[in-house]
Amino acid sequence: MAFKSPLEIAEATCAAGCKKTELPIDKMLVLGFLAGAYIAFGSLLAVMVTPDTVKFLGMGLKKLVFGGVFPIGLMFVVIGGAELFTGNCLVPTIACLTGRAKWGRLLKNWLFVYIGNFIGSLVVAFCLSHLTGFFTTGDWQTSINGIAEAKVAIPFWQAFWRGVGCNWLVCLAVWLATASDDVTGKIWGIWFPIMGFVAIGFEHSIANMFFIPAGIFAGANVTWGQLFLNNLIPVTLGNVVGGALFVGGIYWYVYMRGES
Question: 67: which of 59, 173, 193, 225 is 20 to 30 A away, CA to CA?
Fold first, then answer.
């Protein structure tokens, strides 16, 4: 099975980052919508298969099962094609650090992709989780409500650092997927880091755009203000640091510094 060297990964990531910053706004929004929906599908699946596992397997193995199915979302994004804010904390960043893309276009990409991700997440949370009745009764309602309420109760700096850890691993998954030229290699490159961040308990801003609204729609004791102030703001900031600094910045410094 052939795979790229780290330097080749950096070059491929840089080229992809240039293309991402040149996307028109409508495509950023549409592809962002798809990515938000794809991550929400993985989140929905994780909730649906784990509400009673703690009784039989214990908390540690429940988290492993939850993390084990969640990665389908990023597989859809990377292999199928979509624009995910957390992954874009890595990809256009390297292009900008090398001078091949403009920082203003990176910020534009982040903004409109983030908006698209939010819309896609909400559509799945409301139409495919709430209107379908999945979270209206029983263990599934208890599970999603507990997830939503726990996420908005995390103190600011804990949420920030959980966001850092999450996107360090998410962007590493994107990096490893880029290393492979075949679908099987991309799947394995994605699965391990994503399973790891979810099982550990790190915080992903786009996944939380599904988990917390789905809980709100299901009757959780959570407000829309808490979604943004208590969770999305600190987690998003942490995601930026984890992806742009600990993956994009470090790999740029090691492999591409001096090319700008």
Answer: 225
Extract the tokens encoding 82: 């979509």
d(CA 23, CA 140): 39
User: How distant, in Å, are the alpha carbons of 161, 164, 246 from that of 115?
Assistant: 23, 20, 24
Q: Which residue do the tokens 């939010």 mark?
A: 118
Determine the pLDDT at residue 4: 94
> Looking at residue 56, what is its pLDDT?
79
135 or 138, greater pLDDT: 135
DSSP letter for 52, please: T
Q: Which residue has the tokens 């590493």?
A: 172
Q: Is 49 helix (H, G, I), strand (E, B) or coil?
A: coil
Give me the pLDDT at residue 59, please.
85
**Chain centroid, CA 25 distance in Å:** 20
Structure token pair of residue 152: 């908005």
259: pLDDT strictly greater than 80:
no
Q: Report domain extents, the chain.
A: 6-138+149-255
The class that CATH gives domain 6-138+149-255 is: mainly alpha
Report d(CA 136, CA 154) in Å as an integer. 25
What does the pLDDT read at residue 1? 59
The one-letter amino acid at 165: G
